[in-house]
Design goal:
Length: 193
C-alpha cells in the first residue's frame, strides 16, 4: 500500500501540472475569443469610424487620420470584456483518470476520475496596430488589428503556473486606391509599362 501511494504521488504531480496548464490555456483562449467577439459585436465599428481618409480635389489620398477616441474606446471595451470573461473561469475542476496515476499503457484513461480543483486569475492587455501592405499597382491594404495578451496564473495544491496567450483580431480593413501611373518598376528591378 505504501509503495502504491508513493507511485501515485510520483505520477500525480506532473499530471496535475499538465492538466492545469491545458485547462489554463483553454480558459485563456476561450475568454479572449468570447470577450473580443462581444466587444466587437456591441461596438459594430467600421473602418470609416476609426479612420478618416483625406483626399485632394483630384481624389488623390493625401493623408489618413485615426480617430484616437474611437480606437481607445474599442480597445478599452475589448480589454474589459476579456477581463469579465476571465472572471467567469476563476474556479475550474479537471478530472484525471485514476489509471493515469498508476502509469503504463494498459491503465491510461481507465478507472474512476479524480477531480482536481484549480484556481485561476488572469489579466489582459490590448494594443491596437495599423498595418499597410501592397495590394497591387497603387493599391494598399490598410488593416487595423487588435492584439490581446492574456496572462493566467493557475494555482493547484502544491503547484503554481503562469500561462501567457497572445492572439490578433482584425478590427477593420480596406483597400486604398490611388492613381495608376503610366509606368512602374517591379520589385525585382525590371521596368514594365
Amino acid at each position: 500500500l505504501a509503495g502504491l501511494l508513493i507511485m501515485i504521488e510520483r505520477n500525480l504531480r506532473p499530471l496535475i501540472q499538465a492538466y492545469g496548464e491545458t485547462a489554463a490555456k483553454w480558459v485563456a483562449m476561450r475568454a479572449v475569443n468570447d470577450g473580443v467577439e462581444k466587444a466587437l459585436s456591441a461596438s459594430n465599428i467600421t473602418y470609416d469610424q476609426l479612420v478618416t481618409v483625406q483626399k485632394d480635389d483630384q481624389g488623390t489620398i493625401t493623408s489618413i487620420e485615426a480617430d484616437v477616441v474611437q480606437i481607445n474606446r474599442l480597445k478599452a471595451a475589448a480589454t474589459g470584456a476579456v477581463m469579465d470573461e476571465l472572471e467567469n473561469y476563476k474556479k475550474q475542476t479537471v478530472e484525471i483518470p485514476f489509471g493515469n496515476l498508476i502509469g503504463g499503457d494498459f491503465f491510461t484513461g481507465r478507472g474512476p476520475y479524480i477531480p482536481i480543483k484549480i484556481s485561476m486569475s488572469g489579466t489582459a492587455l490590448s494594443v491596437m496596430n495599423s498595418r499597410f501592405t501592397s495590394a497591387g499597382i497603387n493599391q494598399t491594404s490598410h488593416q487595423i488589428t487588435l492584439h490581446i495578451e492574456s496572462q493566467i496564473v493557475t494555482t493547484i495544491p502544491g503547484y503554481t503556473n503562469y500561462i501567457k496567450v497572445e492572439t490578433d483580431f482584425v478590427v477593420a480593413e480596406t483597400v486604398l486606391v490611388g492613381k495608376v501611373p503610366d509606368s512602374y518598376i517591379e520589385v525585382d528591378g525590371s521596368q514594365a509599362e
